[in-house]
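Input/output pair, single chain:
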Amino acid sequence: MIKFGTDGWRAIIGESFTFENVRRVAYAHAKVLQRKGKNKVIVGYDNRFMSEHFALEVYKVFRTLGFECYLANKACTTPMVSFAVKYMGFDNGVMITASHNPPEYNGYKIKDYFGGSATPEFISEVEKEISEDIKPENFKPEYINIWGEYMREVKNRINMELLSQRDMLLVHDAMYGSALGTYSHILTGTKTSVINIRSYRDPLFGGHAPEPVEKHLQPLILKVRSLGADLGIANDGDGDRIALVDEKGNFVNSQLIYVLLLYHLLKNKGLRDGLVVKTVSTTYLADRICKAFGVELKEVAVGFKNINEVIIREKVLFGGEESGGYGIVDFLPERDGLFTGLNLLELIMLKDKPLSGIIEEIFKEYGEAYYKRVDLHAEEDKKERLKELIKNPPEKLGDFKVFKVNTLDGLKLIFEDDGWLLLRASGTEPLIRIYVEMPSQEKVDMVLREAVKLFE
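Output:
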């Protein structure tokens, strides 16, 4: 059975992710769009194994069914497909990608009329329609340059003069994904020099998942240190997520990126008219910063599609999540690694101090926060144990008394000092995720040890 997860359908190439099943999903998707009277679709793809061939198959299905359909003229990022839907007149978008999953996976993401991830209701309609295969006609592909159009709009929305005020050295790690070359292109002509690493197509992604987490970023960390660079930026396989390395070569976790971006948007760009949205796995510093600026904050379940549900119903300024995806909604109701990175470059230029100094300043103003996530392979006994814990949450974890329990998505135990532990099953991989945020690294380690014991 084909089931969509937190963001799209993902499966192992050659097992479930086959040409036949991709056609079945595209056919189901097309039937839902036909019922809604929608007829114009853009299809994009990343650098994964055979992504362009799967994308062509999707294109042929839509053309066979009478749709006006176009294919990206080269590998692109997921936000570029979202951009095409929002700004270039498309009713829906398909992105062939498995995002940050291991190399053996590929996937099918749907972008709805507003430019963001399709809602759970829309996905449910598609899943119900998945049945027979279709033999498409051999249409010649019609290509469109969404990469170039997207780049032009990004340049219009970033303060390029600000990025030319002083010399900066940036190392960009594309992790062999489809964000390769994006920073070099945008920053040509500014005083920011870009050194690119892992910036060619490798469908094996160097032998591990193209996920911008610390254990996969040693090449970036070493390059930043060896060059004395001001900043290192990494993007995941389809360019919708970001990771940072500061001027000392230290990994900056995704929670701090959320905080830096939120601070920049509220303080420096003066955004106030709307909500800020975070997922249940996102930092408590967001609550403190929003309170300081008088902006309402809403918490939702993990997955950017849940942020998008709020975006559809209400006016949202900014949404982001722990996994490294952040959306500045005025531009796109979608995670965008490049646009996020450029906004952070603006922040560094405005502050005229290194990234580590900006983080210290924020900690002094809003309090310190330290974070770690551990993933456990989800054997059946661990899944059952998680269900038991959700039904009967502990009142105490080691030395930490539980102040509040949140079961919005898994089990979140909130402690008296705002620190928290979240236990949840991944929506994209067979994993139990353990998230911890506390006001000191020592407390993070203590809570993590106790959390792992819960599954032993």
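DSSP finds 14 helices and 21 strands in the chain. The first strand starts at residue 9 and ends at 12.
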